[in-house]
Design goal:
149 residues, four-stranded antiparallel beta sheet, 37% helix, elongated, alpha+beta, 5 helices
Amino acid sequence: MDKIDLKIIEMLAADSRRSLADIGNSVDLAPSSVNERIRRLVAAGVIRRFTVEVDPAALDRATQIYVWVALREDADEGAFREFAGTDPRIEECHHVTGAWSYLIKLRLKDVSAVEEFLSDLKSANFLGRSETVLALSSPVEAGVIPKGA
């Protein structure tokens, strides 16, 4: 990967609908050469997907919540990971070190929906204990990628 590849990635990250001609003008390459570089980056797994950023409020999910989760000792971790991968309320799930098992980022309609989420974790016999943090604002944030909206 060279400086041109990095510039192409930067431009696509800012706007994945950018034309090949526009990118080519910025990096002094023909659109066909830009297209070939993008194909190579995708094939190599450097670019994993092209996506769109959505306003969470438009999806009625303006409230951002973080939940530290410690799984029960008898919890089926594979089933928990499957649950986390398919639950549309979960925007991110990270297996972490320390006193907690996972850190989950939720997008919910409002704070009251947290109780329902935690209840679902308890009903599935996943939740040993948890700590919930409400994000008041997000001065720096990655784009929202809706899942099962």
